[in-house]
């Protein structure tokens, strides 16, 4: 059965969601449809009110927050307001346009690390991740003379995360000088605040593009 989304937003239907009911129609002897036993229901659903699927709100485990109904609603409205800033999965990666990452080196000698051997099963998993990242526009093929090794890391959940061994590159990198905020000032600015949250970037290194130069 085809389903039409009349809104401008992407709506994901959670697996197992009931979207319609089907029932056999009974014809009378005169050819008309019998309505006995049927309850015809016409219900229009305004899909514009759904900014994300139900699974979107389930990400935040609101039942653990111990909020009142009114507070819960305010938080839900706030999250939906900034829905475009929220990552839904590991491949839902942001990309800033306000800055590009530059690396200043002490010398321009290219670092080329040899490829490390991995077993067949792990190699297939790495290949799948690289293909998906390339498909999602997160990475791209390169013929640069600079090359560092991939370090596969098994996460607690059993998934695989790809890191890169940049230790040799870091030895040549001239570090940026950037002052850290004063802790006392930060605590003072929190005076009177009631709600607190922590923010983290999904696969943060991919959120800042590299300078082509």
Automatic annotation (TrEMBL):
One Pfam family per UniProt: RVT_1
Gene3D superfamilies referenced in this protein's UniProt entry, alphabetically: 3.30.70.270, HIV Type 1 Reverse Transcriptase, subunit A, domain 1
Xref: InterPro entries: DNA/RNA_pol_sf, Rev_trsase/Diguanyl_cyclase, RNA-dir_DNA_polymerase, RT_dom
PANTHER family: RIBONUCLEASE H, TRANSPOSON TY3-I GAG-POL POLYPROTEIN
The Reverse transcriptase domain, residue ranges: 155-212
Protein name in the entry: Reverse transcriptase domain-containing protein
Organism of this sequence: Rotaria magnacalcarata
Top-rank lineage group of the source organism: Eukaryota
Taxonomic lineage: Eukaryota, Metazoa, Spiralia, Gnathifera, Rotifera
